[in-house]
């Protein structure tokens, strides 16, 4: 029982981490639109760094080394997304409360 609960919490954390880039994009949109304050500068900067790491050709392990290059990208971007997860959690709570105030599901 404890082992399955632990596995479920790991899966929930992985799912939340996988959704982090989407939530980061929504965060940027709401910050730029002036709807979300205070501005989480650290989350915006680390997210931009992760995006730049994915898009720019400069990597720790070059992408032409197929599997190693892609794993390197996943590890670095995952680590950066994990660093901004607490701030994304606050944003998700704000978004949920804003939707509840408006009477809708999602803004």
Automatic annotation (TrEMBL):
<feature type="transmembrane region" description="Helical">
    <location>
        <begin position="39"/>
        <end position="58"/>
    </location>
</feature>
<keyword id="KW-0812">Transmembrane</keyword>
<dbReference type="InterPro" id="IPR010652">
    <property type="entry name" value="DUF1232"/>
</dbReference>
<dbReference type="Pfam" id="PF06803">
    <property type="entry name" value="DUF1232"/>
</dbReference>
<feature type="domain" description="DUF1232">
    <location>
        <begin position="46"/>
        <end position="79"/>
    </location>
</feature>
<keyword id="KW-0472">Membrane</keyword>
<keyword id="KW-1133">Transmembrane helix</keyword>
<protein>
    <submittedName>
        <fullName>YkvA family protein</fullName>
    </submittedName>
</protein>
